Amino acid sequence: MNSEDNIARYKEQYWNNISTVISNILLPSNKKRIYFEQVYSSVYKCVCEGFSENLRMDILNLCMSYLHSINHELDNKVSVLDEPQKVIATVEELNQCMDAYLISTEKICSVCSYMNKLQREDSKENLPQSALLDCFCRIVCDHRLQHIISFIENSPPFTIQPTELRTFFRNLHFTSSGQYAKLYPELFSRYIANVLPEMREQDLEAHIRELSRLQADWRTNMEARCPQQGLKRPAED
């Protein structure tokens, strides 16, 4: 166990610099130039001196603090809206947050690559990207997901743009390492390949019915958006 003097030295010599860099990485609007060579050196020395566990926990806590602020900010943004706009705005905001956080965690894990290289693969002192993404799921997604899924399943097609939904489910699938797809396999399978087991011959009829339903929904939606206005097909003249 590190003494109080060692912890103070760790904070002063390493963590203060590393935390500034990670905070800058986490903020999408940040325009400050990041000198990765300097922080690579700090992480390397920090790990070599035996502070891997301190560094791992401090990075996780810093990311969780950032995610709590994101969660609170998202609540404030959508609280003034009514259904269905509240859910639609939540999906759009979550997409933006997940896109930005995925990029940030890739950079953070790159910065901390020495921590993983110098430890065994199964060491608790490692900091894989999945650990940082799990924080996002627990803090930002878990308590919202059931309501969003229920809304999507019970809303008319195209209530949320298909491109927005495709991005949403792709991000959720990657962020949760496939765990959300296990909870809602039928819905995820519309947007993510290989979520369901391989189709068997006896499943073909149900698959055809589902495709027919989706096509009918699409036609109904297009007719509602683009009424014929008295136009006929050439064959009807």
What report would you give on this structure?
It contains ten helices and no strands. It is an all-alpha fold. The chain starts with a helix and ends in a 12-residue tail after the last helix.
- What is the number of E strands? 0
Give the terminus-to-terminus CA distance. 88 Å
Topology order in helix (H) and strand (E) letters: HHHHHHHHHH
Major β-sheet, in short? Answer: none
Compute the CA-based radius of gyration: 24 Å
Structural class: mainly alpha
Q: What is the mean pLDDT?
A: 83
How much of the sequence is in beta strands? under 5%
Give start-end ranges of low-pLDDT stretches: 229-234
Please bin the fraction of helical residues: over 70%
In short:
Helix content is 70%, strand content 0%. By secondary structure, it is an all-alpha fold. The termini are far apart.
Please describe the topology of this protein.
Elements: H1 4-26, H2 36-48, H3 52-78, H4 85-111, H5 113-117, H6 129-154, H7 162-175, H8 179-183, H9 185-188, H10 204-225
Helix pairs in contact: 1-2, 1-3, 3-6, 4-6, 4-7
